[in-house]
Amino acid sequence: MKWIEVKTYEEMSRIAAELFIKQLKANPKSVLGLATGGTPVGLYELLVAEVKANRLSFKDVTTFNLDEYVGLPQENSASYWMYMHDTLFNHIDIKEENIHLPNGVAPNLHAECSAYDKRIAAEGGIDLQLLGIGVNGHIGFNEPGTPFDSLTHVVELTESTRTENAIYFEEGAEMPTHAITMGIQSIMNAKEIVLLAFGERKLEAMEKLKEGKLTEDFPASQLTTHDNITIIYGGTK
Ligand code: PGA
Fold this sequence. Notes:
Helix content is 32%, strand content 18%. The protein has seven helices and ten strands. The longest helix is centred in the first third of the chain and has 18 residues, at 9-26.
């Protein structure tokens, strides 16, 4: 594990952007694993700026997002599909057919889950996977107690995750109770992982991760067994 401690959110985003740029320069046909949330916004802004300056292209890149809410159509303003298009995809030269998120309105959710891991495998696996982390150590929507060998699956959202994410929903809007998430094993299958965490509220999770005690009660602990992972973290925000 490589740990990089930073002083500012901007520094974290810049170092992460350099890793993604290096990956795309080395392999313009890379398969990227992407994440939503507040943490990667700065990274995505930097990648958009590189594309706009004609220094970077996503035209042959394929992406797979970690998760999506169950029951939210793509055009819902709180869907992760919408977040990704607003934040990144609408501003870069990626092909729509190369973008993958779990389909939270699929008629058969379990078939959708197993198809998702198959789609990733069919693309040759994820070259570089971006991750955030929850204060409880969740990665994707893999909450404490999720088996380390889990593949993409449907989860019931915990009360704390629903409360944390309620800010992304319009007032009065019904918050989903379930989501589809890549499993911990699906994440671990990536060839390289970069985990970003910034702010005081994430520091306790960072301490736990550093302790390195493997336990399904702290899903991110499994990442300590990955042989190519960089953790960029810091700060009081
Ligand atoms: P955040 O979410 O980036 O909004 O803090 C990270 C996560 O819960 O995985």
